[in-house]
Design brief:
- The complex is a heterodimer.
- By secondary structure, chain A is of the alpha/beta class.
- Helices cover 38% and strands 13% of the residues of chain A.
- In chain A, α2 runs antiparallel to α3 and α10 packs across α12.
- Chain A is globular and about 65 Å long.
- In chain B, 33% of the residues lie in helices and 4% in strands.
- Chain B has a two-stranded antiparallel ribbon.
- In chain B, β1 and β2 form a beta hairpin.
- The longest helix of chain B is centred in the N-terminal third of the chain and has 18 residues.
- The chains are: A alpha/beta, B mainly alpha.
- Chains A and B meet through α10, α11, α12, α13 and α15 of A and α1 and α2 of B.
Chain lengths: 499, 100
Amino acid sequence: MSAITDLSAAELAAAIAAGRAGAEEAAKAYLAVIEQREGQIGAFNEVLADRALDEARAIDRRRAAGEPLGPLAGVPVAIKDNLCTAYGRTTCSSRMLENFQAPYTATAVGKLQDAGAVIIGKTNMDEFAMGSSTENSGFGPTRNPWDVSRVPGGSSGGSAAAVAAGMCPAALGSDTGGSIRQPAALCGVVGLKPTYGRVSRYGLVAYGSSLDQIGPLTHDVTDCALLTRVIAGYDRADSTSIPQDVPDYLAAIEKPIAGLRVGLPKEFFSQALDSEIRQAVLAAGEAIKAAGARIVEVSLPTSRVDSDGDGKLSSFAVACYYIVASAEASSNLARYDGVHYGYRTPAKVDDIVDLYCRSRAEGLGAEVKRRIMLGAYTLSSGYYDAYYLKALKVRRLIKNDFDRAFQSCDLLLCPTTPTTAFKLGEKTADPLTMYLADVYTLSVNLAGLPGLSVPAAISAAGLPIGMQLIGPVFSEGRLLQVARAYETATGITRLKPPQ
Amino acid sequence: MSKNVDEALVRHIGVLARVELTDPEVESHAAQLGAILEYFDKLNELPTDGVEPMVHAMELSNVLADDTPEPSLTSEQALQNAPARDGDYFKVPKVIGESQ
């Protein structure tokens, strides 16, 4: 395989800008990897080969003409298929949107394009981002490049697997309860869920609007900093984006971490956690300590993770999250009505309500229906206070716990997932078991905080183990800085699955 | 074992959610929704009296834009994914008339 695909996004952009590599050459090299691996992995819903080559040639022409190039000029990037692109299709891996062509491009994708990135394809996902294994896709599952009998995680499983399999140097995902960080951990790549409002959600197909954020998946921390800097920032098209300057994350990550206080939330290291993951994350803490940080113990009581005798996990945060997310989903997904866009039943219907009910029954998958129904129920008359309002109060308690923890530390270190990548089909029979795959990530979305997953170690079975860094709002630079220090100290970076 | 969600309740939720359910779906949802709702009830162990509900992660209020017209999607763009259209309109089955 051509060495050009061994370069990081930052290195590739630099090589192209310096004329040491061509954008077309890079696009062709990555398309060749996709050609070779896609049949096994199933990371893409659509590969935009012709468009990518055209864009790459345009970059090469601009470089030849001496025109200025953006920081990602010529870098192929894959896009999760719930981000609208005015080219190709935007399906959310749902039959409902199988032929949907978005009339506009999401702000985050537009910013990548403006920076010179070459959009190489749209990646598979759990339908409408609801799931933790990418098995809920309407178009078939994605497989983990480390072991194709295992899931890549989800819902951004296609993006994580594409990066891990070397099909692109970077990808965008979205994270509502862990959907970037969990697949990043399971596939051995770096994934960031930015602070709520840091990246514009304009053009991201809505699931849980108070929780959703777009973020990058990359091979190393520097690339994560590079892409985050490109996609972040205020956007008047998203009234929940925050008007605050974007720091130079690339400069921030090289600063020494001496004196930073890293908190270990004790409730995240209980018996509920796989012992190998506990050891790996605690060892990472030691490495970060050796690099100059201080380790302190903190408490997040409302996000506590318990385990019963059978190893079944429980957490208030999981209950809180699924009430809030399902309620928002039931409202957001009301737009799929068989009238304005998307699937319409071909059956003869009696009236408009019948058209809605049948189109949704046929166009939506089981998990999506389950969450819409859960949301409709918990918001319905007589149950609103018991479920939805209660969950909003618990959400406040969860956020208060983080605020209190950040009085005695600058960031938190904890696991990203309770286990390494699990087998396809292992958790599909019981929705609750699948929900628990996000037990360490979803509190971060409820509280609106940034969370970063980076590879911490490889398990004895040869599967990646991720660790999660969580900080106060707008502390992405600090999380990336500590992750970069870990990467430098241990050399655990740019992991490659055995082929 | 799980909270009592009977088939009539599942059918009622299906109507609220505008999703037609087959008989086997009603049966499986009754069991699964029951287990999930029972799990949700775990929140009752947490005292929340006097706690302010948290609706949004970043508490912005009154985000206003200038009241100036700007270009938006054309009718053609808005209709380009419509399953059925009639000129510049979305086409739906007869809404008023025979039934009722």
